[in-house]
Amino acid sequence: METVFRIEAPRVIAGVARIVRDVGIAEELAQDALVAALEQWPRDGVPDNPGAWLMTTAKHRAIDLVRRRERYARKLAEVGRDLEAASPAGQYLDTPSDPDDIDDDLLRLVFTACHPVLSAEARIALTLRLLGGLTTAEIARAFLSPEATVAQRIVRAKRTLAKKGVPFEVPYGPDREARLASVLEVIYLVFNEGYAATAGDDLLRPALCEDALRLARVLAELMPKEPEVHGLVALLELQESRAAARTGPTGEPVLLKDQDRRRWNRLLIARGFTALGRATAAADGSPGPYALQAAIAACHAQAYTYEETDWPRIATLYALLAVRSPSPVVELNRAVAVSMADGPAAALEIVDRLATEPALSGYHLLPSVRGDLLARLDRPDEARAEFARAATLARNERERRLLLARAEGTG
């Protein structure tokens, strides 16, 4: 029953939110439907279509709620008549009355949960709660935050959406582009936290990667003409394909150059290339930031060994990415590619220019990259100091141990 609810909850919440126009109330009504299932299914048996049963039960409760609100009486009369005509009292729908409507509702829920009026932290928490099916405790564990903090963040997000009167809709025109960027950013951030945990004892948090990838795939199905949606799917598929090779037997990180590429998931790689092809076709020759990152990941996936990687192409792609989505982190990644294409000395010039970037002042990968370049330039004492500094900045215990080991092994 828990599995069924986790799978069906986003669609149920989305369907109910269209009636009550409040995602917080919609979530409560979905939970009420689950309670009803816990009471009735053990007695009457599990229905043939559990998802439809939950949807119909939650919608009936939504109608009852709206009926009690006089200001919604006129709107309710129409919604109630339509729903009751489709589903007589005490019965559930064997199949949704209009699957396209449900997909539209799910898309509305995605855009509502990721509305720019919310902070990035609130968007992530609310998205994982409503669409990822995670409990507050699970979200708190994933991001190493107190459960009370996460609970308050989610409550405030729901209140903000209601207070600001955020419409339960998929925006169109210029507003869609702005809102879609927010949706994609949240999914991307969720995946990144699972792919390389910011802090804690584990490098990976697979559940977060799975949730983000599932949301990206759903979004691609709902918005098949959006190139950056496919670009994000391609990026996540290709990154996730390396998961099994990224850690050793005891969970220690394995650097890209040392990974056993036979352990890379070829099915995910194939899916990634398919999604990248769709992104390229839809972009009409002008790839966006996610598609460019996916193209970089594709270069790695095509190479049988680290040395055979097409580093000049990767450096070029990073240069394009720096134009489309400039950031110090992109420049740092470009420096790594340049070091493989043109040598460590050329890359060190780029890294040294980044030393004064405020955004990288506490970023452990800056001294880590610099340490690697110095080691390759046969400057072991300086490299050792950089690795040690990077270790002091790393918040993830696995990364910290790796950096300390590199400091001790340099020279």
From TrEMBL:
Keyword line: Sigma factor, Transcription, Transcription regulation
This protein's record includes keyword Transcription: yes
Alphabetized InterPro entries for the sequence: DUF6596, RNA_pol_sigma70_r2, RNA_pol_sigma70_r4_t2, RNA_pol_sigma_r2, RNA_pol_sigma_r3/r4-like, WH-like_DNA-bd_sf
Start and end residues of each RNA polymerase sigma factor 70 region 4 type domain: 111-161
Alphabetical list of Gene3D superfamilies matching this protein: 1.10.1740.10, Winged helix-like DNA-binding domain superfamily/Winged helix DNA-binding domain (1.10.10.10)
A Pfam family matched in the record: Sigma70_r2
Occurrences of domain RNA polymerase sigma-70 region (ranges): 8-71
Family: Belongs to the sigma-70 factor family. ECF subfamily.
Protein known as: DUF6596 domain-containing protein
Species of provenance: Streptomyces ossamyceticus
Lineage, broadest ranks: Bacteria, Bacillati, Actinomycetota, Actinomycetes, Kitasatosporales
